[in-house]
Each structure stands twice: as C-alpha cells, then as structure tokens.
Design a protein that fits this description.
Largest sheet: 4 strands, mixed
Helix content: 55-70%
Radius of gyration: 22 Å
C-alpha cells in the first residue's frame, strides 16, 4: 500500500468498494467470476466439488462445503431449498426472507425514530428484536450438505477439516504462551490489569491467522514429525502471534474508556477501567503495546534478523497514525457528523480498513514473513487479509443491530446510540450482507495459488468471520 492510500480515504466503486487501482482490481475479479459462472451454466455443470468442514465457534455447527465461489446450479437461483445458509442452521429461504424483512422493517422504523432522538434504541434491542433474528446473518459462499453415514464419509475423510478443533487447539497454545508472557509481578496492580482483559478469553482470531499463514508457507522436510513442526511454530511464529493479541487487547482496553466508546463490558466481563480504574486501564494498554514489540524482538528464534525487522516494521505501521490509531481518530471525528452518502461510504471504508482490517492484515503478513514466504506470496496474502478484515468489521456492524448484549459479550447497539456511521446505517442490512459476502468471496480467490489442503485453515477462518455470531 503506498503512502497516498494511508493519507486519505479511498474512493468507492460501483459496489461501494475501494476506488482507483483497488476498485479496478475488484471489478476485474468480479467480471472474471461472472464469465466463469456463465460458462458453467451454459455447459450444464452441476455444483462445484467442495471440501466438507464444520464451521463456527461457540454456537451450533453446520456441515458445509468450502469453496472459493458461490455455488450455482443450472438455472441459477431456481434451487429453492438449498440456497443461502443462515448462521443458526439451515432455514428455508422463504422463512429467512420473512425474518430478514422483519428486521429490515424494524431497522427502517428505528432510523425514522432516530431523526428525533435515540429513544427507540432500547426497544429495538430488548423488546422488538426476536431472539431468533440472528439467523438472518447470511454465510457467504457456503451451502448445506446432508449429514452422511460413516461409510459415505470414508471416501472424503482426507478432506475433512474441523475449524472448532483447530481453533480450540491453537487457542490453548496461545493462551498458555500469553499467560507465560505476562506473569503476575510487582507492581501487582498493573500486571493484574494487563492480564484482566488479555486472558479473559476471546476468539484469538489474530493469532490464529498469523499461525495459519506461517504454516501455509513454512517449508518442512517430509520426514518431520508433529513434535518438530510444533516446536518450529513455537520458536518462530508464536511470539508474534502473542504480540498481536497484546496489541489487540490494548486497543480494546483503550476503546472501552469513557473518553472513547465508554463501554462497561468486554468479552463477557467488566471492562478493565471498571475494575482497575481509568488510570490503570490506560497504563495497562500502554504496557501491553510496548511489551508486544519487546516480545517479538526478544523471543523469536530461528528466523533471520531481516525478517524479524520486517515483522516489527509491518506491525508498527499497522498500529500507528497511518493504521489503527488513524482509523480510531477518523471514527471519533465522524461521530454524529452529517455526510453525503458517497462521502459517508468513503469515510466508513477508511475507518474499517484502518481501525480493524489492518491488524488482521498485519497478522497474516507477519505469519507469512516468519514462514519464509516470497514477495508474491506475501502480496497475495495481504490482499486476502484486507478483504477478510473489511468483512470482519461489516459483520460487526450487522451484529451490533441484530444481536443482544449477552450474545455479543459487549454492549449491543452502541453504534446506533452514538450515531456512528456504519454499513447498515448507510446501506441497510441486506446490502451490508451482500458486501460481506463479496469480500469473503474475493478473499477465498486469493488462496487459489496455494496448496489447497494447507490453505484450508485460512479459507475456513474467512468463512467463520462472515458467519460468526459475536
């Protein structure tokens, strides 16, 4: 990304996506996919062959096919019962459309009410929104497959990938490393404040992306066993994976402060400043940020100094005034500001790309650097990360108005209450889902150049990002 991209919000394309070279790249990709779908339908091809996976963390799991493009049958959308998958299991399209229409109608009613004030906010979330409404969050490029018998499964067992098991295993390793990296010490209060949010749980998506990118490109000898590969991961990539989670936790602690988002809950527990006070929360965030860079420099083993420096520079750029901090600044200054639709979309894309997406980008690129990726592989993975990063925040915007505080583990409806610009507020829920779908579809296409089996974790994580419920 050149300096001009960091200095000003990007323009939007025909689908409210990035303008300039970025917009042309996305438009070209869309045209290529459209031609492929047309040829497939003309040739009478059936569904793409997929890889069966289980997707989702912390909620009901649905067996799905994973592939990089939307599934099409001959005749396009005539398939009535096997269309989109909805996040809490397979719903009939008719029922899902009705629920989506109900939420959209309530959303429109709230928007009308908000012109006078935000008094309709609590009613929208506590009384009007049905508990099952979360099913209207659509999963991109995913189709339901029937549950088969063991005999039927035997032929496809090699292609089975369980995201839940993968994230659980990686999460345990990351949590153990984080606990060791931030031990309780004197002064006790600051270290307890640092550990409070850092070790309170969380999805650990950033460490998982870093590890998955590392494993995708890291060359191993054919005779290496699992223990050897695990040791290489701990020595080469785990310090950076932990550092990314420290930086992410810092951003959460500071974002929750009264001077910013003023939130009382995070990861299902009281926020750091509610437990330890604003002064200790600020200092805990500062300490985590500085420790992150120290941890990378001091603990990374068996990686060339040149690559370690590139990782530090990459993460530093993504956190500073041209990255996370810059996105936070524009977010604060845009709050409650009246903007024309085009300006609002440009500003919103800048906020999301810099406040959220850029740290996901740093995670993927850092893992690739540590694994020895080539420049071409790094740029391919960078494009993948930008797409999933923006999709992550679009989904966050959707969940803010479709889920409850209990489901999210943080206060729901905060964006509406503070009159923040979001994708649903500008485009509506359905259009926002379409944008998230397209971003994930584009991200998956970036993995086509890699070994399919080794790219499975990154591909499945992309799908999880758009289907998650918190």
């Amino acid at each position: 990304r050149d300096a001009a991209d960091d200095r000003a919000p990007r323009g939007t394309g025909a689908r409210t996506r990035g303008g300039g070279a970025r917009g042309e790249e996305l438009a070209q990709g869309a045209r290529t996919r459209a031609r492929k779908r047309t040829r497939a339908e003309e040739d009478g091809e059936g569904e793409d062959e997929g890889i069966r996976i289980e997707i989702g963390i912390g909620f009901g799991f649905t067996q799905v096919h994973m592939h990089g493009r939307r599934r099409r049958r001959r005749g396009g959308s005539q398939n009535k019962d096997k269309g989109a998958v909805w996040a809490h299991g397979a719903q009939k399209p008719e029922q899902s459309r009705q629920e989506a229409g109900l939420i959209q109608e309530r959303w429109n009613t709230h928007k009308a009410n908000s012109r006078v004030g935000n008094t309709g906010m609590q009613k929208l979330h506590r009384n009007q929104m049905p508990m099952g409404s979360s099913r209207c969050t659509r999963v991109a490029a995913v189709s339901v497959v029937p549950v088969t018998t063991n005999e039927e499964n035997s032929s496809t067992s090699d292609s089975h990938f369980d995201l839940k098991d993968y994230m659980k295993a990686r999460g345990k390793v990351v949590d153990k490393a984080l606990d060791a990296a931030v031990p309780e010490a004197y002064p006790e209060v600051i270290h307890k404040a640092m550990r409070h949010t850092l070790l309170a749980g969380g999805k650990r998506i950033r460490p998982a992306l870093c590890i998955a990118a590392f494993e995708l490109v890291h060359e191993t000898d054919g005779d290496e066993n699992e223990a050897v590969r695990h040791n290489a991961l701990l020595r080469k990539a785990m310090p950076t994976a932990c550092a990314l989670e420290m930086i992410h936790t810092m951003s959460l602690i500071h974002d929750d402060l009264p001077c910013l988002d003023n939130d009382d809950f995070r990861r299902g527990t009281p926020t750091c400043h509610k437990v330890y006070g604003e002064d200790m929360a600020i200092l805990a965030g500062d300490a985590l940020l500085t420790l992150a860079f120290e941890h990378i420099a001091a603990q990374t083993k068996d990686v060339s100094p040149e690559r370690v420096l590139k990782v530090i520079a990459e993460i530093g750029r993504c956190v500073g005034s041209h990255g996370l901090v810059g996105g936070q600044v524009v977010d604060i200054k845009s709050e409650g500001k009246e903007m024309a639709p085009e300006e609002g979309l440009k500003t919103l894309e800048y906020i999301h790309e810099h406040k959220t997406a850029i740290l996901l980008e740093a995670a993927v690129v850092s893992g690739a650097l540590l694994g020895g990726a080539t420049e071409m592989e790094i740029e391919n993975l960078r494009s993948y990360a930008r797409d999933i990063g923006l999709a992550f925040q679009v989904v966050d915007d959707i969940l803010d108005v479709t889920m409850t505080t209990e489901q999210l583990g943080k206060t729901a409806g905060k964006d509406l209450a503070s009159s923040k610009t979001t994708y649903p507020s500008l485009l509506g829920l359905e259009k926002s889902r379409e944008i998230a779908d397209e971003l994930i579809e584009d991200a998956l296409s970036k993995l086509d150049e890699f070994d399919r089996k080794r790219a499975m974790p990154l591909g499945t994580l992309a799908k999880y990002i758009v289907s998650r419920q918190s």
